[in-house]
Amino acid sequence: MKAERRRFLAYGSTALLSACAPGRSSNPDVTFIIPYAPGGGFDSYVRAVIPALQKSLGALVIPQNVDGAGGAQAAQEIHRAKPDGSIISIVNIPGAMILREQGGLDFDLQKLSWIANMGRDAYALLVPATSAIHSVDHLRALGHQRPVKFTCVGAAGTAYSATKIGTRLLGVRSQIITGYKGTNDYIVAAVRGDGDAAIASLASVNSYLKAKAVRVLCTFEKTGSLPGVPDATTLGLPDLVDIAQFRPIAGPPGMPAPIIERLSKAFISALRQPSVVEWAARNHANLTPDDPAETMRILQNQAQFVTRWKNQLAVA
Q1: What pTM value is reported for the model?
Q2: How far apart, in whole angstroms, are the C-alpha atoms of residue 265 and residue 292?
């Protein structure tokens, strides 16, 4: 039954996109791989930009969720695809780099054809709205009594690294409870009491804030976007700002420069469309329409980040 429902949803999504596409042209359809299950931050970003991207490309863009092995299954699929512009993928950075260090990927990420970067999302530390914990100091005090339980995805996920490094910088003794398939799963787990708290991207937390299901104790932003919530500057912990989630777009290795340029221009144009900008504002998503050169610079910086915290992430 679940498999049938997924097929129905996939068909319905494709049919809707076909109806909304700006007419059929000579440009081929583009499959847009999402490396996680529907409903998380990566899925939200892709589906929010697709209508504007279709107009920029003059082609149908079809989202495809390829969930498995912490993003490795999707990465392998894009790595093996033909470099003709018909298949692209959003990539979890630094998550994919951590996965590579752990042996979960058998190819050099730098060899992918990097097209653009969609966004840079800061993280937030949250507790259930019903929790008796109301501040980071309360968490620290609890940590003196016992490890504070944080729900999270597995060690290959970016949220895992954010939790490991973030709690260390905050001075909170932690125990990370893993095994959840995606961001929504582990946030819901924290809300229902599987753990005391969770760390997730602001874009993922937003819907739970609107539903008044969680309370945010702090964000890892330099300048906070949530009124009354402490940020990295307020906490006196500037290193928290370095913990971020990037959402670059890649194609298979060897993609010709004209195709990269065409796709990059289409993405940058789409990310600047009012409908996408408004979506980002509503969901605390930080859009950064970065070109291929800037995207490569981001990758280099994040590679240094992973190297710096390698021991903490147990990826040696």
Answers
A1: 0.81
A2: 10
